[in-house]
Amino acid sequence: MFKHFLSNNRFKLCLAVQKQLQSNPHSVKLYSKTASQRKQLGGFEYKEDTSGFKNSVAVTNTHLEVKETTHEKLEFGFEWLRENCRCTSCYNGITNQRNVQIFDIRTDIQPTNFSLSHNNLKIVWNDGHHSEYALDWLRVQSRDEASPTEVLWSGDMSAHVEYVTASEIKTRNGITRLIKSLLEYGVGFVTNVKPDIQTTKEVIRHIGPPQQTLFGSMWEFSDTMDHLDTAYSNVALDAHTDTSYFIQPAGLIIFHCIKRNCEGGKTLLVDGFRAAREVELESQALYHCLKTIHTEFQYLEKGHHLASLSTIIRHKPNGRINQIRYNLYDRSARQPSQSRQFYQSVRRLAAAVRKPEAEWWLTLEPGTVVFINNWRVLHGRSAYHGQRSVGGAYVHMGNLLSRARSLALIK
């Protein structure tokens, strides 16, 4: 969003004013101007911080620009600034909500005067209102949220992801370590947990409440086919994401092997973001299909018909991958547009997912709870014979991100 908006003439004039100020601070008068007066001066008015800070501000006919000591420029529209005044009449600091509505703001809103001192910007608006903004606050609002860097991975990551004990999860340090691991790798573990549903629920609630679905809020499955889903069987399951048929798939899936007396039944984890990146590096055309061609996912059971139409890969507004919705079991028979290109792209993604070197196989034992970012990490299992009962829950992605922000992991 950082734009160089000054024309050559305007930029030269700005430099001239700046040099004049540096050589003789009292030789240039800075005073309020109307838009028409600013137009005569090249469309802007320029001021430096009067307290010795090396920041400066320029005002054009449409927006305000802050020039940082790093030479970075931050641009803010007049309407945005006026709407986001944080004085007590414009903003409720108790509820953290605006008092001013967009229809309350004049369409021709603009400053009549402004000053910059001690990294605080003061503006007098043409509606008579006075606003004050800290440059640090403006800087935060001008950029995307910062979060721990996602680490793409293949194979066994047990030496890298976090293992937090049931007692540590109750502390700020413990929950921070777990969530940081989920943000970086998409996986984290809690150990020494009593193998029952209630204790598992208490552990999960440190991140957020279990999500209520047709499977319940907390669920437990074995091979009894309580629901018409292959998870409720003992057959092998290829790597996939869960709840692809939800309008918004669950953000976290949590598993706890409550009982285990069987052969097989190992858990499979695969980094879906790494697989997607592999496709992107090999073929931009196929990757484009994965993020633009919609396919329908569905779940059918008596009394339930869930369906969602979505692309397999979704991106954030800043272009970074945000979600992979990959489940070859749950796609409906509805034909996608550009059918041939769709199958080519999914086949290539499946090849990246199924690479043996990409797979992390582990055995879940009673007492260990695994947290999985369901928007990123695919899970599956090997077939098993014997007794194996797994409990767990889903958690909304919003709850995970909210907890991360409250712990300052996302800023």
Automatic annotation (TrEMBL):
Its EC number is 1.14.11.8. Its cofactor is L-ascorbate; Fe(2+). It catalyses: N(6),N(6),N(6)-trimethyl-L-lysine + 2-oxoglutarate + O2 = (3S)-3-hydroxy-N(6),N(6),N(6)-trimethyl-L-lysine + succinate + CO2. One of its GO terms (cellular component) is mitochondrion. The keyword Ribonucleoprotein does not apply. One of its GO terms (molecular function) is trimethyllysine dioxygenase activity. Converts trimethyllysine (TML) into hydroxytrimethyllysine (HTML). This is Trimethyllysine dioxygenase, mitochondrial.
